[in-house]
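REQUEST FORM: STRUCTURE PREDICTION
Request ID: SP-0412
Submitted by: Lab K.M.
Chain count: 1
Length (residues): 496
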Amino acid sequence: MAEKDKTNALKARLPRGLVDRHAGAIKAADRMLATIRGVYELYGFEPVETPLIEYTDSLGKFLPDQDRPNEGVFSFQDDDEQWLSLRYDLTAPLARYVAENYDQLPKPYRSYRNGWVFRNEKPGPGRFRQFMQFDADTVGAASPAADAEMCMMMADTIEALGISRGDYVIRVNNRKVLDGVMEAIGLSGAEHAGTRLTVLRAIDKLDKFGPEGVQLLLGAGRKDESGDFTKGAGLDDAGVATVMKYVAAQSSVGNEATVESIRQNIEMGPSGVEGLNELDQIAVITTAAGYADRIKIDPSVVRGLEYYTGPVFEAELLFETVNEKGEPARFGSVGGGGRYDGLVGRFRNEAVPATGFSIGVSRLMAALTALGKISAEAEVGPVVVTIFDRDRVGEYQKMVKDLRDAGIRAELYLGGSGPKAQLKYADKRNSPCVVIQGGDEKAKGVIQVKDLVLGKQMSTEITDNAVWREARPAQVEVPEADLVAAVREILARQAG
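STATUS: Completed
RESULT:
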């Protein structure tokens, strides 16, 4: 027979910016999501699920244009020539859902959802085209109390996942205050929208470049170590000084002191005064509830998306770990959000207040793994019942059913290999033990149960094959009726 031609075999390859997840990672994520879900439901939030695909114009800012219909999002046209897109985040689909079901939903509407989101961006280290988010939102509540509750729930979620108080902080600011500072330096109006965005991006680089780097980005620009030049916002000296004074206005005494410091020392327009009053209310509420040590007002918090209209918040991890190069590093932000009063209103002829936050599941999972709070390693697999006599498959399947009826994970080996390969299969499945019954055992009415965990341990301690065969320390012979009891004993011993 001619050998199969392999020259035209399809190459198996994963697209850039995407990852495959194995069983251990999936189960670890499920446990983490269950913990997050428990906190959200404790606060009275209910689940809702929206589809992965939306009409592209529902996604707001990220609309396709004639030249680049996939700008920012993965988009396509249906047979009606309507543009559809994979969702970019979970907030814009929620806004569409609330607007479409507005009269039937209770107001305020408190909901949570988790799922995959997609970014049509250049992939790189830590930047993926598909990743998971877990959001919570309150729609229909204009009070800063709703924003304060989001911050408190974020803090409680992080602690429920095992991160200690002092190892994280919830940082809070208000876009209105930032807008007020812009007004004071002459950057109000649509004609200055681009400059305002450049200023916000500069402030957002404070942790990365420090005050000196931000000051350069607010002015003419900054040259990095490689010689690449980033053009700045072009503010004059007075404008740069005002912004830098605002960014440094955080007080070490407490949130109320930070608000008062901004009020007394920073010049700002009317929207800034309104935003400052909202920050003051958040400070009062969170302090009264006992969260002042982990919810901090920080003027340097910006948040990236343009649809934020008021308070913005960010969950930051403070503990140090090491990166791939062995250098000290921090995980930094693992979630954030803010108020987006204009997003639902795009679908209705009325203003609809809304606030919420999103947890980056993959990033937070990496942090919890580094802390040893969760493990993505393969878990204990099922008990494997091996097949020695092919004409007795029904009897072997009955053993499997007896184990399953007792609540023990079990499977029948369904491959075509012999005994040695079956044991190797069980080892790859991370099985705690295997069940063996050949013709001799059947004649005697007994079953062999091999403890694979103890077997691995003993194999490192016993080097003489004769001693090993004589002792057989990891294998027991029991009557057929005692199979479940014998397996339970082995599982209990391994758990202990």
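NOTES: The longest helix spans residues 23-42.
Reviewed by: T.R.
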